[in-house]
Amino acid sequence: MPVYPISVPRDYYRGSNPRRCRKRQRCNEIDELCEDYLNRKISENPNEIQMYTYALIAHELSLTTKEVSEVLFGVDAGHNGITVRKPPPRKKE
Questions:
Q1: 67 and 31 in contact (C-beta within 8 Å)?
Q2: pTM to 2 decimals?
Q3: Cβ(24)–Cβ(90) under 8 Å?
């Protein structure tokens, strides 16, 4: 189970194929959108265990469910969504 904060892996293609460069750029934009969205939602929610479906994320970010699932599946997510553990804040001593 992924732990907050979520870090979505990026595609670091550095080749010269222009089509693949455009695809990499779009994928990295979606990666960043999903990562920012999830980290913001998780930080606002006080629950230790949180679940988010790909369909909900896609709807709120105006993306397709397929785009979101392809991105977040690499973060150890499931087939319909992602469950995240948010550790409780450390107590100051």
A1: no
A2: 0.86
A3: no
